[in-house]
Amino acid sequence: MASWKFLPSFIVVSIFSCCYGCTFTITNYCPYTIWPGTLAGSGQQLSTTGFQLDAGQSFRIPSVPGWSGRIWARTGCTFDASGIGSCQTGDCGGRLECDGVEATPPASLFEITIGVGDEKDFYDVSIVDGYNLPLVAAPRGVHGGCNATRCTADINVGCPKELQVIGSDKGEGGVVGCKSACEAFGLDQYCCRGEFANPSTCQPSFYSTIFKRACPTAYSYAFDDGTSTFTCKAYEYAIIFCPNSGMKGTSGAPTALPIEERSRKTAGMVASSAILLPFPMSLFLLILTAYF
């Protein structure tokens, strides 16, 4: 009977030590197909690292506490049946599944570090590596409202000529991406490296200011933390590409696609794609009554 004495306290600890995971719901409101990619900076890769997303469709990807990484969208892609090909912007090694390969600039990024337990998430939209598509990232908070962050302006339209990426004849043509000054010129003062690798010496440039004016809450250069980093404890992040295009899914809402089963990559991941459900209070009280 001695071992039973510790059952209620064990249950209490279990209830209040649960961890929160969250789901990324990626939606394509662009009037054309995109190919989102994901990359883990900390923890294992997500259940998918690259996939096709047609106009008006959505795709849900579960994550786990402590995951850190980035999500972006590729454009102008062609892939064969084996998933080998190329993209005009955001390419990740010429494969449909990025499998740990980062996006080739320019690419608009959503970046996040998910908190463990009651720790908050840190997230941002970044155009430090350049811009290819408008996007908004809107969290749904566990404990209430959280701030969305975005870069919804079409920077490609006003991109300086020296930063422009022009699409091929086989793709959409025109300006399909806008490079960062670091990518275009490779100078330390633009890349915040060498003697410029600290906030006091790396200041906004003429080019990063163009980006910042277009997207005030997005990272425009490496040390743009003050106006660009957000915190929240969320159970879902809605990541929408081309949010102002007017494109909608079926019945005015995005079409939900099932999460793909990839057992080789999801081993050890939590089964829930949202927060863990609260322990039923009535059952909790019943257990306390039985053992006290």
Give an account of the 3D structure.
It contains 6 helices and 15 strands. The protein is α+β, with helices and mostly antiparallel strands and 292 residues long. It has a 6-stranded mixed β-sheet, with no helix packed on it. Strands 2-4-7-8-13 form a 5-stranded antiparallel β-sheet, with no helix packed on it.
Summarize the structure.
This protein has 292 residues and is of the alpha+beta class.
How does the major sheet shape up? Answer: 6 strands, mixed
- Low-pLDDT stretches are 1-18, 250-292
For the terminal residues, how far apart are their CA atoms? 13 Å
Please give the order of strands in the largest beta sheet. Answer: 10-9-14-1-3-15
Which superfamily, in CATH terms, is the homologous superfamily of the domain at 19-154 and 215-257?
A: Thaumatin
Which structural class best describes the helix and strand composition? alpha+beta
- Strand count: 15
Which percent range fits the helix content?
10-25%
Average pLDDT, all residues: 82
CATH architectural grouping of the domain at 19-154 and 215-257 = Sandwich
Instruction: Give the helices and strands as they follow along the chain.
Output: HEEEEEEEEEEEEHHHEEEHH
Measured on Cα atoms, how large is the radius of gyration? 22 Å
Looking at CATH, which topology of the domain at 19-154 and 215-257 would you report?
Answer: Thaumatin
What is the CATH domain class of the domain at 19-154 and 215-257?
A: Mainly Beta
Shape: globular
Total helices: the number is: 6
Content of β-strand = 25-35%
Transmembrane segments: 269-291
Pfam families: Thaumatin (PF00314)
Protein name: Pathogenesis-related thaumatin superfamily protein
Signal peptide: 1-21
